[in-house]
Amino acid sequence: MTTAFDPIDLAGTRLANRIAMAPMTRSRAEAELRIPTQLTAEYYAQRATAGLIITEGVQPTAVGQGYPNTPGLHSAEQVAAWREVTDAVHERGGKIFAQLMHAGRISHPVVLGQGLHPVGPSAVTPAGQLFTGTGLTDFVAPRELTADEVRESVEGFATAARNAVEAGFDGVEIHGANGYLVHQFLADGSNKRTDEWGGTVENRIRFAVEVVKAVADAVGPERTGLRISPANPYNDISESDTEELYTALVTAVEPLGIAYLHVLEAVPGLRDLTLALRKQFSGTFVLNPSTDGPTGPEALALIEDGTADVLAYGALFLANPDLPARLQAGGPYNTPDNTTFFGGDHRGYTDYPAL
User: Do the strands 13-15 and 8-10 form a parallel or antiparallel pair, or are they unpaired?
Assistant: First the structure.
């Protein structure tokens, strides 16, 4: 029987186990240059016993930034700073992918600076507020991307992927979940376009597929992953055709031969869709399962029964940097501090000297 503690080949990259550290926003980057710091290197190195570390969301372009003090992969300074992080992880035997996250409309001019304004597939203002560094501020209407800018955004992902490899990352994960730009194109609530990127399911998946193909062409499909979160309402996203939408998306990316598909079950009751997507996709299937609270040791059975190839743990990894060892030993576990799980500096631990 396969267990979460068995190694796995991820399209040519050997993972020591099947326990991944899920991507979680940290907001710890140096503010002016948007570069990771020594604290970032220590934080990820502490968790290098994960089979795979997936970083916090990293903006592929300046206009892709969503939150204060988040890092980018679009400048030479950022590439150099990330090299210190990847070196620290590799020195401890770990594997690390950079998550490329373009926030799209989930941003604010105050956060972006440089005279930039949030963009999206359509000028649809999301409900809610964003922490801008000084307090909560209402979202603004994004500027609708022109056709040329859509193509430039696709190339921005590819360029950032090349930068990630130059910075020493083992690969990249495209963030197509949680209401950010790729998800905004997928969802009919945020995508009102009437051109080739809007309207039908075939058109609404086009941007995601173009991004995946561009990244795979840039750095190799074996270094490319995609994260999705079907039916996730986070960041004021609405989808009227979830099953059709994601079935079409996975059908379209399957021939590209990417390393993995990462499914976040953001809402309960969609396990049948998860299993259908798992059956569709021939590469490694990473699952962040729907649970009542932080994913715990009971989820390990999802590897044993074949539901997933790799399990992604979020909050529990914040509280327990040596999580694979604790899972294998049956505990004990530090309790995550869920009050800081979304947004800001997610220390997320009670008694472990973690960063």
Answer: antiparallel
Say what the pTM is: 0.95
For residue 351, the model assigns a pLDDT of 31
Q: 276-305, pLDDT tens digit by residue?
A: 999 999 999 999 999 988 999 999 999 999
Mean pLDDT of the chain, nearest integer = 94
Q: Hey, which residues does 8 pair with through a beta bridge?
A: 15
Contact between 141 and 65 (Cβ < 8 Å): no
Pair of tokens at residue 98? 């950079």
In angstroms, rounded to a whole number, what is the distance separating the alpha carbons of residues 214 and 220? 9
| Residues with a known catalytic role | 180
Task: Yes or no: say if 285 and 278 are a contact pair by the CB < 8 Å rule.
Answer: yes
Q: What's the Cα-to-Cα distance from 102 to each of 180, 238, 333, 340, rounded to whole Å?
A: 6, 18, 33, 22
C-alpha triplet 52, 176, 219: angle, nearest 5°:
60
Name the one residue in this structure whose structure tokens are 């990894």.
317
Strand-pair category, 129-131 with 136-138 = antiparallel
Residues 6+ apart with CB under 8 A from 184: 104, 105, 120, 121, 190, 191, 237
Separation between Cα atoms, residue 216 and residue 349, nearest integer Å:
36
Contact in structure between 103 and 180 (CB atoms under 8 Å): yes
Which residues fall within 8 angstroms of residue 121, CB to CB, at 6 or more apart?
Answer: 104, 144, 145, 150, 181, 184, 185, 190, 191, 192, 193, 197, 198, 207
